[in-house]
Amino acid sequence: MVSLSTKLPPAPSKRPDKEPLDKIALGMKEATSLAIFNRWMAKAAPMVKGGIRAVPGEGPIGAAIALVGEQPGDQEDIVGKPFVGPAGHLLDKALAEAGIDRKRVYVTNAVKHFKFEPRGKRRIHSKPTAGEVTHYRWWLEKELDLVKPTLVVAMGATAALALAGHPVAVERNRGPMEFRDHAGYLTIHPSFLLRMPPKDRAAAFAKFVADLRQIRKRAVAADAPEAA
């Protein structure tokens, strides 16, 4: 997917902080709160080509539902928040139709930096490799340990790989899953809908909303009133 921006952020340095990398990693691992974890994460160097800044997750601690996507996009990299671009707007619409308040959901990504290829003024989204997803995996695990969601939702194959630790075919396994010690659910990433032929989008969007309704019901069944 091509991401466009009217103004590119300044080029990043090789490391966003002068503190030793092992000190940053230790700070993240030993963080006792999400705020502390995010402060250390902001100092960490990108492990993918491009990445201007680490984009933290957003939402309440103890959220009934945590939604995990692939990586930040162009707008997320500029703003510093997850799911604020075209896919995020589509996600907001689907959540609303499913009766889920986004403000009560925790949203994040498997890879915390935007991987892209610069082409003139455009920044072209580049899919993270399995190795890159693995490098970021413990970041995601630590983040979820601090957030403590009731239900973790993998949106797309990259999120499923990060959460399950191995490749997962989305359509074949779409539905309830277990991710480590988290009850989970696998569905598509909303950007998948944006790449579809227009004639197929309505049916695919309806199926995505149906998944979110099932996710909401499972969260409610697990005594998670935040999702109601």
The helix count comes to 9
Order of helices and strands: EHHEHHEEEHEHHEEHH
Q: What CATH architecture label of the largest domain applies?
A: 3-Layer(aba) Sandwich
Tally of discrete structural domains: 2
Strand order within the widest sheet? Answer: 3-2-6-8-7
Helix amount: 40-55%
Q: Unreliable runs, pLDDT <50, ≥5 residues?
A: 1-15, 224-228
Shape: globular
Strand content: 15-25%
* CATH-defined topology of the largest domain: Uracil-DNA Glycosylase, subunit E
Largest sheet: 5 strands, mixed
Mean pLDDT: 90
Radius of gyration over all CA atoms, rounded: 17 Å
Question: What is the count of β-strands?
Answer: 8
Return the CATH class of the largest domain.
Alpha Beta
Helix-and-strand structural type? alpha/beta
CATH superfamily caption of the largest domain: Uracil-DNA glycosylase-like domain
End-to-end Cα distance, whole Å, is 33 Å
Give an overview of the whole structure.
This protein is an alpha/beta fold. It folds into two domains: 17-46, no CATH class; 62-223, 3-Layer(aba) Sandwich (Uracil-DNA Glycosylase, subunit E). The protein contains nine helices and eight strands. The strands form two sheets. Strands 3-2-6-8-7 form a five-stranded mixed β-sheet, with helices on both faces. The chain has a three-stranded antiparallel β-sheet with strand order 1-5-4, with no helix packed on it. β4 and β5 form a beta hairpin. α1 runs antiparallel to α2 and α4 (86-98) crosses α9.
